[in-house]
Amino acid sequence: MNITDEGPEIGLKDIENLEAELKARLTSDYRDFLLRHNGGVPTPDTIEVSGAPEMPTDVQFFFGIGRSIESSDLMWNLAFIRERCPCRHVLPVACDSGGNLFCLEVENGHTQQVVYADIGISEGRFYSVAPTFEKFIGQLKPYA
User: What is the CATH class of 2-138?
Assistant: First the structure.
């Protein structure tokens, strides 16, 4: 996978601040992704989410820490999903072109599987995507 439009360089302290806000520890694969890229535009970018409507979809943008565009920032998206879907404890990590979110579920103080949040529905509808962040990015394919 290639990433363009990467975010500003961040360090472990930035990750620790995010984890403190989230009250959960990020998985090592996602931590490494943030430290290496801090968000950006992936190529390839197409993914099929089983059971979700209007598939396949894309990963338009991965969010990052301290991004200059508010809607591309992890903390802004965390506040958004907490307001929109207060019953789910998730961390939005990316969006598709329709504005739906790819999130890491948070359980027992750790981030877990990747889910797709169809936020066009009140309270959102969530679909399982991949058991890990690494497997999620491994599912990205060129549009066919």
Answer: alpha beta
